[in-house]
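call fold(seq) -> tokens
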Amino acid sequence: MSPQLRNYHQWIEAEIKKQRYGVQPASLYDPITYLMGLGGKRLRPMLTLLSYALFARDVRSAVPLAVAVEAFHNFTLMHDDIMDQAPLRRGKATVHEKWNVNTAILSGDVMLVKVYGMLLQTETDKLRHVLTAFNKCASRVCEGQQWDMDFERRNDVSEAEYIKMIRLKTAVLLGFSLQFGGLLANASSENQKALNDFGTNIGIGFQLKDDLLDAYADPGKFGKQVGGDIISNKKTYLLIQALQKARGKMKTELNDWILAKKFNKKEKIESVKHIYDKLEIPAITEKKIDFFFRKGFRSLDVVSCDEAKKEMLRNYAEGLIGRQS
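ret:
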């Protein structure tokens, strides 16, 4: 990480530590502090600061607003973990596991309220534009999550449906993060759109990479339960491709694992991964990841700004392609 990127990350972490969401009852606010303190890549606020830096110099002034994007992201994680019954988040117990489901729901709710309070720090002349773009993004994230849950009851989810779902659930927030930085720095509407397109497409690639890592990552680096998507029959890109391509005994075995109510988790993960390997699903997924990253970088190419500043954003995004955790 370059010194400048390291500075951005340190500013974000310092701002997160400064944030106070509330005091009493502690059982409502402690889960928020706990979740926000679990660390992570801080990808979304980093993208906001990097896009802001394309058009303005006073990057540090944008940090509190960039952290609002991180707070919203963590709100979605808190509720998403409940719906997925996920035991781990960044290698630690999820909020609903450490406290309980009802507390996690309510803490998530107040967290979203606090995000709006953070966004109200936006300069008055930009506030309406920020809230309009944020509300559009937030609604789409919820739509994507509902599609994701609807897909749990289906075995005929198409690739196109899945890409649409992750575009909404995951990618549009990356698009907003970049547009937000540009908007705050007075970028033109054309540049804001190109940044949004860039973020949305790399966001799709980022989620596809996450699908791949869920099955194949090093457990010591991933921070979540490796194979969790396989255990829960989550309709990931890998499973959708396998269901479409499997034939004969392989298809029967895959369907048997999906329908099984009682099973050894380790055995299921290894057996399904063996099917994926036979069908070359990892290579197919890598190719699709590359497609969306390339599409995103084409949008970044049309952003009109200092090329040296753009290169820092490009390098940061390229680092996401090769990530292993």
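The chain has one domain: 3-321.
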